[in-house]
Amino acid sequence: MTYTSIIGKEKIPELMLKYEFALNILETQLNILIKEFSFLHGYNPVEHIKSRIKEEASALKKLEQKGYALTYYNIVKHLHDMIGIRIVCSFLSDIYDIVDLIKSSPQFQLKEEKDYIKYPKESGYISYHLLVLVPICLNNTIEYVEAEIQIRTMAMDFWASLDHKIQYKFSKDLPKEISEQLYDFSLDIRHLDQKMNQLNQIVKLYDKK
């Protein structure tokens, strides 16, 4: 299945160009913010950053799963993660530093935020999501393009990556014993992040001495 089968397909090339522009702007501004933070605090809280524009097959499959018709309008209206950025941090406290950094930046408009760390999903998924609007200039007109930013620790990223691989193996819902074990492992991840964050606070006290 490709974009050639979608209603309004003639608008797709321009839409993908907008996503490309928005992603370039977002990556550049995030790098500037993080480098400035590192300069001011003498510490880089970010381990690595991954980014992508959702592939067309994945986008159309998600529309179908959500029960929407395959139209250009529904891509724009209902797929909020066509642009995805994942920021992986060292420690739990780093996540909230990065969240504050992004929310305070005049470069983006915050549309929505979800704290799946304080309020995990039923599956055990933990991360912090920000939905931002990125301004781009196309045809001498300023437009705002949605992008999803996920911020998590290395431990959270490890769990989410394996969960995704396991979910992919099943066409329907996960067997109960597997979903229960994944949830238990998520609790272990949360406990580990808390312990490592406490250790990091102790290290910071030594740095001050």
Question: In angstroms, what is the radius of gyration?
Answer: 19 Å
Quaternary structure classification: single chain
Q: Specify the CATH class.
A: Alpha Beta
Q: Mean of residue pLDDT?
A: 91
Tell me what portion of residues adopts beta-strand conformation: 15-25%
The percent range for helix content is: 40-55%
By CATH, the superfamily comes out as Beta Polymerase, domain 2
Task: Work out the count of structural domains.
Answer: 1
- If strands are numbered along the chain, what order do they take across the biggest sheet? 1-2-5-4-3
Please give the count of helices: 6
Distance from first to last alpha carbon: 61 Å
Main sheet?
5 strands, mixed
Structural class: alpha+beta
Spans where pLDDT lies below 50 across 5 or more residues: none
CATH topology: Beta Polymerase, domain 2
Please explain how this structure is put together.
- By secondary structure, this protein is an alpha+beta fold.
- It has one domain: Beta Polymerase, domain 2.
- 52% of the residues lie in helices and 22% in strands.
- The chain has a 5-stranded mixed β-sheet with strand order 1-2-5-4-3.
- Strand 4 and strand 5 (141-153) form a beta hairpin.
- Helix 5 (154-168) packs antiparallel against helix 6 (176-208).
- The radius of gyration is 19 Å and the shape is flat.
- It starts with 11 loop residues before the first helix and ends with a helix.
Sum up the structure in keywords.
209 residues, alpha+beta, Beta Polymerase, domain 2, 6 helices, 52% helix
